[in-house]
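Honest question from a wet-lab person: if I give you the sequences of every part of a complex, can you actually get the arrangement of the whole thing, not just the pieces? Trying it with mine:
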Amino acid sequence: MTWLFIIGVFAVAGAFYLYGRRKHRRESGLTNFQRHIDALSPERRRESFDRVRSQNRDDDQWGRR
Amino acid sequence: MARDLAIDLGTANTLVYMKGKGIVLNEPSVIALNRQTGEVLATGREAWQMIGRTPGYIVAVRPLRGGAITDFEITERMIRLLLQRVGVSRFTRPKVVICVPSAITEVERRAVTDAARRAGAQDAQLIEQPMAAAIGADLPIDEPVGNMVIDIGGGTSESAVISLGGIVALEAVRVGSFDIDAAIQSYVRREHGIAIGERTAEEVKLAIGSASPTEDESQAEVRGRDLMTGLPRTVVLTPEEVRFAIDDVVTSITSSVVRCLAKAPPELAQDFLVRGMYLVGGGGMLRGLAQRIEKETNTPVRMSNMPLEAVVMGAGHCIEHYDALKGMFMGARR
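Yes, you can. This is the full assembly:
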C-alpha cells in the first residue's frame, strides 16, 4: 500500500514536472521569437546604422579637409 | 576585454565591424607573400596594389574565390592579421560573426570557423550574406511581408526572399564581378589580340562597363601586351563590345534572380511588385544592371543606400544583439 502511494506521488510529481517544462518551452519559444523580431525592428537597427552613418560623415569631413 | 566583431569576408573586400564602434576596417581581401620564405609582406590595400606587378619571389593572392577559401593556411594568416589590426590579441578573444555565401559547403563552413578560431576568436558564428544584407539594407524583414535582396559580390551572386526574420527562398550562383573582369580580359585577348591584367579589366568595367545601354556612353583606351609581337599596344573598346563580352555573366546573374522569384510563395511574390527588389554588393553597382533585372523580371529594382557596407552592417547589428539574434546563425538552425 505504502509503495503504491509513493509511486503515485512520484507519478503525479513527474506529470507536473513534464507539464511545467512543456509550458516553459512553449513560452520560451514565444519569448525568443518576440526578442528575435524585436531585435530586427527598424528602431533597434537605427542605433547600429546611425553609428556607421555618423562615422561616414566624419570620414567625409576629414577627406574634405 | 575585446569588443566583439562582425566580419564580411568577401572575395573582393573584407570589412570589419566592431561592437559599439562601427566599421573599423575596409580593405581588399589580398595578401602578398614571399614565395621562398612564406613570410607575409603586405595585406589589404598595399597588397592589392602589388597584383600583377610583383617580382618573381613575391606573390600577391586573393585567398578567397567564389566566396570560398581556396587556400586555408593563407586565409587563416589573413584573418589573424586583420584581427591583430583591429586590436585582437592572444589575451583578448572576441566573439566573431562572419558573413559567408549561403551556398558554401559544410567543409568550407568549418574552414572559415576554424580559421577565425585559430586566428584568436573565442567563438565564431556564420551568417548567410543575403540575410545580413537584408538587415543592413534596412528592409522590414521583421514584418510578414516579402523582401527580396540581390547581393552581387566579387565571387558570388545571391538572391533571397526574406520574411519574418527568416529566409523563405534562396538562389545562389558562384558568379560575380570578378567573372565580369575575367570575361573582359578574355574578350580583349580573343578579339584584339592583346593581354591585359586583372586590374586593367576592372578599370574598363568601371569606366565603360554596363549590363544594358545607358545614356552618356563613351569609349575607353586599353593598354596591354600584343600577343603576337610582345610589344605594348593600345586598343579602343566601345561600351557595346564590353556589354557583349560580359553578357554571359550578366545573364547567369539575372537567371538566378528569376529562379529565386519562381521559388517564392505567391503571397510574398505579390509584395515585390509593390516594394521592389533591393540590390546590394559592389557587383550591383554595374551600370544598367538594375534596369536589366527589372526588364527581365517585370519587377522594380532599387539600389540599397550603402551597397558596399550593407552586409557588414547587417552582421554588425547581429553582433550588437547577439543573444536575441543567435537563432539566425548558420549552425543554430541545423
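Two things worth pointing out. Residues 239-263 of chain B form the longest helix (25 residues). Chain B is about 40% helix and 25% strand.
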